[in-house]
Amino acid sequence: MGDVMKPGRGRPALVEAVIALSESDTWDEARGEWEPSGGEHAKGVGSYDNECVCGQKGLVYLFEIANPLTGAVLGPIGSECIHYFEDAAMDASVAALKAIWNLEQVVAAHIPLEMKHLSRLKIAALFEYGAIEQREYNFLLDMFNSRRAPSAKQRAWAVAILRAGPGSVRAFLTDTAAGNRPLVRVRTIPEAVTR
Ligand SMILES: [Zn+2]
Q1: Cα(63) to centroid of ligand 1, in Å?
Q2: Where are the domains of the chain?
Q3: With 90 as the cut, is the pLDDT of residue 128 above it?
């Protein structure tokens, strides 16, 4: 990454806020002190009253970052500004939230959720943000990776997980899109960081 990624001139308020809460007093050193706090949120379309610490308005994805050295927490930060940190874990959070936001759009359009709407990244994101449990994650991933056509029983379980009832992925995404449930990462899949 060259000078293009440096927010020094374009985002002075972000640089100022980060350095003020860091031990280091230069952007290049200070940015390395931060990690995702796990308190990310995706806002639905129309919830455009949120402002990044840099001053940018109309954020769709809001991130919160933490500095273990100083104990500081900073947010909300938009996905564009998150990329300036050049941090793999933060970029993975952005990718996961975008995956969930994409699925929220499917549900909002009243399209029945199916396996074809999923990807490894989306299945991992649903698990990381608590929409599905471990055995559901394992099942969906197996289904996704399988070259064989699913059995009737497997199809029925997939439907149950994805769109049947109050515990389904559809219900989860309806709640998060409406802002009735915050999107909080409840677990991290280590291999998902580099996906
Ligand atoms: Zn920003």
Answers
A1: 10
A2: 3-86, 111-182
A3: yes
